[in-house]
Amino acid sequence: MNGRSPLQHRFMQNTKLQILNNTCEEEQSCSCCAVDFFEEKPPLWKQKQIITASVAGVLLITGLVLEFMSGLHFLSQVLFASVIVVAGRNIIRKAGRSIINRHLDMNCLMSIAAIGAFLIGHGEEGAAVIFLFFIAEFLEEYAADSAKKSIGDLIHLAPETAHVKRDGSETVLHVHDITKDDIVIIRPGEKIPLDGLVSSGHSSINEAPITGESVPVNKSEGDKVYAGTLNENGYLEISVTRKSDETVLSRIIKLVEQAERKKSDTERYIDKFAHVYTPAVISLAFAIFLVPTLVMGLDWETWFYRSLILLVVSCPCALSISTPVAMVSAITGAARQGVLIKGGTFLEELSKVRTFTFDKTGTLTKGKLEISDIIGLNSHPESEVLSIAASLEANSKHPIAMAVTNEARQRNIELRKTDRFKSIQGLGLEAFINGRKYFLGNRTYFNNMGISLPEEMAELEKQGKTSIFISEESVPVGIVALGDIMRAKAPGMISNLKKMNIRTEMLTGDNSEVAGSLAEVLKIDHYHAGLLPEDKVKVVEDLSARYGHVAMVGDGVNDAPSLATANVGIAMGTIGSDVAIETADIALMHDDLSRIDYILLLSRKTMNIVKQNITVSLFIKGSLTVMALLGWINLWIAVGIGDMGLSLAVILNAMRLMKIRV
What we know:
Layout: H1 6-13, H2 48-70, H3 73-100, H4 106-119, H5 123-155, E1 161-166, E2 169-174, E3 183-186, E4 196-201, E5 203-206, H6 208-211, E6 217-219, E7 224-225, E8 230-231, E9 236-240, H7 248-261, H8 265-295, H9 300-313, H10 317-321, H11 324-335, E10 339-341, H12 344-352, E11 355-359, H13 360-364, E12 365-376, H14 382-393, H15 399-410, E13 419-424, E14 428-433, E15 436-441, H16 443-449, H17 455-462, E16 466-472, E17 475-486, H18 490-499, E18 503-507, H19 512-522, E19 526-528, H20 533-547, E20 550-554, H21 560-565, E21 568-572, H22 578-583, E22 586-588, H23 594-630, H24 635-655
Parallel strand pairs: 11-18, 11-20, 18-19, 20-21, 21-22
Antiparallel strand pairs: 1-2, 1-3, 3-9, 4-7, 4-9, 5-6, 5-8, 10-22, 12-17, 13-14, 14-15, 15-16, 16-17
Helix pairs in contact: 1-5, 2-3, 2-5, 3-4, 3-5, 4-5, 4-9, 5-11, 5-24, 7-11, 8-9, 9-23, 9-24, 11-23, 11-24, 12-23, 14-15, 23-24
């Protein structure tokens, strides 16, 4: 394993999902089938490693009692040798295999140290080396299983079977037997097994497993629903749109699994270091034994013992796992918060980012027209202005009409009956309400009729808002202004970035007035207006040259070129968007800008923990090496603190990342 610890090797090489469910005809991961390392394990106290450790521990303690209290030296040595047989069989076997393959690893270090200790009459310390190293390996494996469990939780989100309507009857089928356009029945409290569209019914759906958003989403006919989400209170019939291996949940699982195998620059550096580390340590240990004894004539047993301590102290377990365990903990923790990070390299890159660029439409704003202002004129209240406007627009399917009628519906505004409705294409509408003629339209429409418009309308238009004017004959009734509404969490997110000394820039194809108005409200450092997609790429390249690492946040489709150009491309609101999930470095599954603060905090904490783990590992091992050469420590301390204790500390420190929340 070229100096890697069992945990690092397990994290970086053996996390590929292998489907064991016999109903799967294809050897690939899906969102509903069990996999080998997610099968339910026996209780901790029943696991083989615990039983082995318990037996070896009893033998070691009994041997120590006989050695130091009863003076039964031979019997105690037999018990110490039994510890090697019970706990060290696999360790010695792996050591022999690595020697044959000429790839020395930490199993070699521990085996040499244990055998050497027996040769010089320190059987108790040789047994302790093997026993404590066995415990360290178990702790590492336990940490690996804990991290993998996060993906296992995702895999088990979607049920394996579903109730399907076929030929007028209801039948239960495995999800692999369900095809597109099948109708699946979902009752209250049941999880949705496959992606689809609501064909009948309405309900509240908890999409937290996919998006990390805890507030349920109302779904009715025509709305999209996703595998693994929970139907809370209504009856739904779903028309399936994706098979089990094509769902959003299935793609999330695959991407997280792939991300855990992608190495950051730090991990690659540690790998290169570990490749030459173990052979160098063994050579140094031999030099420390041979030079003082053969050249200087010093006591061979003393220096042989010190060289054994050096082998144990220098075991690279903690150093090897310091980075991968942190990266995997962060990636799997983020997935549970609705954030897909494609690999440790992007976490590392994000921690270096000093400039964030944002697309405007669909990112900082909602990307759809909504009513922003209602102004009543000539003593007409807002409710009356909206009622008249919605009554006229109810006959139209224009996006402006949809926004006006939706607003009226949300406010429970009653619509009025209209007569002799007439639409003038691209200009406005006219109709009679209660025998009175009303007009609704844009500036050109009323200019053509010779009706003067109030100053308020010009002010709204300067802000980049689309404004419509309503009049009764030539008497002004009111103004309704519409715009692409800013996301509620955008100001707080920008403010938090500034507190972290992050520069913010906005890129948009809108005109300068619209861009400037939003940038002023959000207090963005600078904005670039009137940009085409290729212009955005040039801006990102320029910012990268001026400020270093740049992150780009966009919708993941229209902004694909600039997302690819940035050091880190972040696509938000990508649930259901195949292109966005596949192309972004980091994908936010929900339209929640607070996730930007979260991933930036997560990246910085991850790299801080990586640095802490590496620094502490090197410092403690360096200190113990000096102590070993001076004869200040024994094998007990070397393996208890320098190996097992340090590995446990590194693991626990890294797993704190899984507890970071949005």
